[in-house]
C-alpha cells in the first residue's frame, strides 16, 4: 500500500507543529522520520492515525484522498500504530488486549476469544514472536509487550505500521530483535513508518530517511549517510558526536551508598539493598531500562522518599533523614529527570529560575528582601557561560526550547561549589548540539574533583560519559563494570544477567555470528 502525506499542516493556537509536510511511503518500505524531540514527528503521525485533524493538507492511500475522523477510520484503511507508551491493559490477557475494541461474542452473548487466539498464534509463529495468547500482559517483559502491540495492528490487517520511538524502553538486545522484526514485516510487504531520533537504529534499518526540524521537512537522506551528516541536518549546523575527555583521575571515595532500600506505598522494594560508592573526580553512570529503581534512588539521595532504609554518606555525613533543602545546601547539585515538572517554574523568569535553590541567600537576598539587581547580574553571567539562547533573563523560562531550559537547570546547579553532582536523564528531549555542550560541562565538573552520578536510559550516553557503569534491574544492583564494557554485555545486564554470565553469553553470541558465513552484516547491534 502506498501512503502519501501532502502539505500536512497542524496548528495548536499560535503554535505551528507541522508546516506543509510532504512524505511518501512506498509499498514494502521502511521510511524513517528523523528529528529531535519536539520536531513535530509524533504530531504528524497522530494526524495520519486520525487522532488529530489536519489544519491543512491531505492524506492519500494508493493515490486516493482519504479522511480519518478517528483511529478506527485509519485502521479500516490499513494503518496501524504502535505508540511510544503502550496502549495495553496490564490485568488483561494478550488475547483480551488484542480483541479490545473489536470483540466478538458467542450466541449466548459471551466473549469469544478463540478466533483472536488463533490469529495471535498464526502471527506469532510467522514472525517468531513467541507470544502466549493467554499470558497476562503485566507478567510480560517490555519487549514482549511491544510485540503484542504489533500483533494488535497486524490482526487488524495493517498494511502500513507506524512505530513511534519504539526503542525508548527496550534493552539493546530487545532493540536488535525489534529491528529484525521490522525487516521481516518489510519482506512480507508491510510498509513501516519508523519515528526516531537515534541515528544508530535509523541507519541500521531504514530504506529512506526524511528529516524534520521545527515542524518542517528539511531534507531527505540515504541510510548510508554518515551519522554526522544526519545530526547536522537535524539541528541545522555542524555538531560533534564524540566526546573528547581525558581519563578520570579518581581520588578518595567521598560518596557512599550502603544497603539502601526504598519501599513504595504498596510495600514494593523499588530499590532493594544496593551499595556503591563514587570517588572525587569520577563519573558513575547508572544504566537500566526506565522503571527499574533509578528515579527512587535519586529521590532517596535528595531526601524526597519517606520509607528509606540503609545509609547515604557524603564526606562521612549521613544524608538519610535530612530535608531536601538541607541536602542541597550541603553541596549537592541535582538535575531532575523531568525539567518541566521538577527543574523549572515555567512562568518564572530565567533569572528567577537560576536562583531557585538560593533565593534566600547572599548575595541574592538580605534578610527578607531580595536584590533584583544581583539576581539579574547572575542571570547575565550564567546565560553567557552556558550559552542559553535568549534575548533577556527576564523572559519566562517556559518560552525557551527544551535544550535551553536544560541549560538553565544545569547552569543553576553547576554555578556553586559542589560536593556531589547528580544528573538524571541529563539530555532527555535535548537537541544534538545542546547534548554536546551539556556533556562537556558534566565532564568539566568531574575534572574539578566532584563525584558525579549520571542516570540515563540512553546507553550511548552512558558509554560516552561513564568512568564506571552500574546497572539496575528491578531495584537491584546487577553489577558495576568499567567504562569500555561492550553494548552486548550491558544490554544483557539490563535484563538482569550478572556481569560474568553476560560477558560469557555475549562472547558466545559473537563467536556464533563470526562463524556463520550467512551473516554478512556481522550481527549489527543498533
TrEMBL record:
InterPro entries hit by this protein: AAA+_ATPase, ABC_carbohydrate_import_ATPase, ABC_transporter-like_ATP-bd, ABC_transporter-like_CS, P-loop_NTPase
Tagged with keyword Transport: yes
Membrane topology: Peripheral membrane protein
GO molecular function, one term: ATP hydrolysis activity
Organism this protein belongs to: Pseudarthrobacter psychrotolerans
Repeat is among the record's keywords: yes
Annotated region described as Disordered, given as residue ranges: 501-526
Limits of the ABC transporter domain: 3-239, 255-499
Pfam families: ABC_tran
GO cellular component: plasma membrane
Gene3D superfamilies named in the record: P-loop containing nucleotide triphosphate hydrolases (3.40.50.300)
Annotated protein name in UniProt: ATP-binding cassette domain-containing protein
